[in-house]
Amino acid sequence: MKKQDFIKAVATDAGLSQDAVSKVLSSMIDTITSELKSGEEVNITGFGAFKVAHRAARKGVNPRTQESMQIGPRKSPVFRAGKTFKESIR
How do residues 61-76 score in pLDDT, each as one tens digit? Predict the structure, then answer.
């Protein structure tokens, strides 16, 4: 399902216009992104949690040249599904 299909499905289910759902979805994504950037965790009860995982620096190998290289530390977004969400899928 693509974003536009998702917007149509939610608009139909909620009885709202596609434009309103699109604005809400964009706002939701922006809010989650800004909270993760500031180091906060976003919990949506019954759905799951978004957080930032910190990956330490490590050694790697360039597959083309087989040279060892240092891979720097990085932050990565992580989604952990909630219990209710997991159970509804099973």
Answer: 999 999 999 999 999 9
The pTM of the whole model exceeds 0.90: no
Q: What is the CATH number of domain 41-90?
A: 4.10.520.10
Say how far apart CA 63 and CA 61 lie, in whole Å: 6
Residue pointed to by tokens 């434009």 = 19
- CA dihedral (38, 39, 44, 48) positive or negative: positive
How many residues does this entry show for the chain?
90
* Distance in angstroms (rounded) separating the CA atoms of residues 14 and 75: 35
Rounded distance between C-alpha atoms, residue 79 and residue 33, angstroms: 12
Mean pLDDT, the chain, integer: 95
Check: CB of residue 17 under 8 Å from CB of residue 7: no
